[in-house]
Amino acid sequence: MYTPIFVFLYFALLACCSLCLYRIWRGPTPPDRTVAIDILGILLVGFAAIFSASTGKAYFMNVALAWALLSFIGTLALAKHMEGRNFDD
Asked: Model's pTM, two decimal places?
């Protein structure tokens, strides 16, 4: 069930991913790169959600939820590391 709207959404997310990869590669500061990595994780959740909607398979939503949680925890850990604090503070 691939409709033109799903194809448009795939290409839009792919364009956003390429912009995020550019920011990760060229980011002038580590916080810029961190934000780009976080946004890339959000885009991957979007890919999984759109793929789930286009194929009708519900387990891709489980993948999206797990990826979102891991991305959030990873962003928090990286932010604490960049701040210079321990992980148990």
From this structure: 0.81
Within a domain: residue 20?
Answer: yes
Structural domain tally of the chain? 1
* Domain presence at residue 89: no
Cα–Cα dist 9/28, whole Å: 29
> Which pairs with CB-CB distance under 8 Å and at least 24 residues apart come from 75-82?
75/34, 75/37, 75/38, 75/41, 78/34, 78/37, 79/34, 82/30, 82/31, 82/34
Domain that holds residue 27: 4-83
For 52-80, write each residue's pLDDT tens digit: 988 888 888 999 999 999 988 888 888 88
